[in-house]
Design brief:
The protein is an alpha+beta fold. It is built from six helices and 14 strands. The mean pLDDT is 93. Bound molecules: 5,6-dihydrouridine-5'-monophosphate and zinc ion.
Length: 340
């Protein structure tokens, strides 16, 4: 592809949206200063942490002395079960609907000082197993049509606590991003007779330039249409639509992929790398969804060092997302980063 040094735009086929790429602005050799701010030393158990085993949470409930993963209902849930299902609307320009749902918090480990990148594989497999249980349990509730599992890591991304944890929001309607992806994957399957991400995976494995690493079950790629500097997508090699279909080997290999990806991120700038990460799985509306291909997105904000981050401001807010560092250059740096 000959567009690497010219300003151009790239299409995200999963959302149907464009991103502007301005590679001439970073064509110079890498000059970003690598600053390392010493990471705060974390205790294995923090008596003031509301996620550590045995501690009291904000609502007054005490956590059990859990030894593996631990899931609880979010004490400050964004969604509630009791919302009445009715339309609140005065006219078509003032439309609102009641939305029911369930929000949970899941601790990955009793250890306050660990992260996905520093936990051992066996323990990350237990995290995957718990995600599967949650997806199945919440997804089979008749009014839950979507289960979003996501991790905010680092204060920069709004994580309230370094204790390794994620959130699970399950709701009645499909959120915006999965709704776009559902539409686009559906249209692609209808037009081409095969899955969008199966085909995309083939393209990336052949091209190699945006591929970070792969194992038998998954590949990690900086997507061609990435918006965030070091954004990645984790693609399953086999076509399936949700975690409930993961084999035991795939669970193990997903754990490896998550550990290695986050370790590479940490090693890139020598810091505990902030990001929002989440899985995109088929809607849990009782349909088969053959168009849906299981994947995860990592959206990290850092650009050049621990302190220099990308902001979505100006043109990005008013026009469309834009990036200077090409996905190919980002992939090269991530490939070179150490994975443990
Ligand atoms: P984040 O770090 O991604 O914000 O997730 C932590 C969640 O934990 C957050 O949604 C909840 C917050 O509402 N929480 C509790 O449920 N109980 C507490 O005692 C404090 C925080
Ligand atoms: Zn803790």
């Amino acid at each position: 592809m000959q567009l690497i040094s010219e300003p151009h735009r790239r299409l995200n086929p999963l959302t149907g949206e464009w991103v502007l790429v301005s590679p001439h602005r970073t064509a110079r050799p890498w000059q970003g200063q690598v600053e390392t701010t010493p990471a705060p030393v974390l205790l294995q158990y923090d008596p003031t942490c509301y996620l550590c085993p045995g501690n009291e949470r904000a609502g007054g409930v005490r956590n059990p002395k859990y030894t593996g993963t631990f899931v609880f209902e979010n004490d400050f849930a964004a969604l509630r079960l009791d919302a009445k299902n009715k339309i609140i609307s005065e006219n078509e320009l003032l439309t609102a609907e009641a939305e029911r749902g369930i929000c949970r918090v899941m601790c990955f480990s009793p250890r306050h000082d660990l992260t996905l990148s520093t936990m051992n594989n066996e323990d990350v497999v237990r995290v995957v197993d718990t995600w599967v249980e949650q997806y199945v349990e919440l997804g089979t509730m008749d009014f839950i049509r979507h289960v979003q599992i996501f991790e905010n890591r680092g204060a920069m991304m709004g994580a309230s606590n370094p204790h390794p944890h994620c959130q699970i929001w399950a709701n009645e309607t499909l959120p915006n991003e999965p709704a776009k992806e559902l539409r686009q994957q559906g249209k692609y399957l209808e037009k081409n007779g095969h899955c969008l991400l199966c085909r995309y995976l083939e393209v990336e494995i052949n091209a190699k330039e945006r591929l970070i690493f792969e194992n038998d079950s998954f590949a990690v790629v900086v997507p061609f249409w990435a918006v965030w500097p070091f954004e990645t997508i984790v693609l399953s090699k086999r076509h399936f639509s949700g975690m409930d279909d993961l084999s035991s080997q795939e669970r193990e290999q997903l754990a490896m992929v998550l550990r290695e990806t986050t370790a590479k991120y940490d090693n890139l700038f020598g810091v505990s790398f902030p990001y929002s990460m989440g899985f995109h799985q088929r809607p849990t509306d009782g349909e088969q969804h053959p168009e849906w291909h299981f994947h995860a997105h990592f959206y990290p904000p850092l650009l050049r060092s621990a302190t220099i981050r990308k902001f979505m401001v100006g043109y990005e807010l008013l026009g469309s997302p834009q990036r200077d560092l090409t996905p190919e250059a980002a992939a090269e740096r991530l490939r070179a980063a150490i994975a443990k």
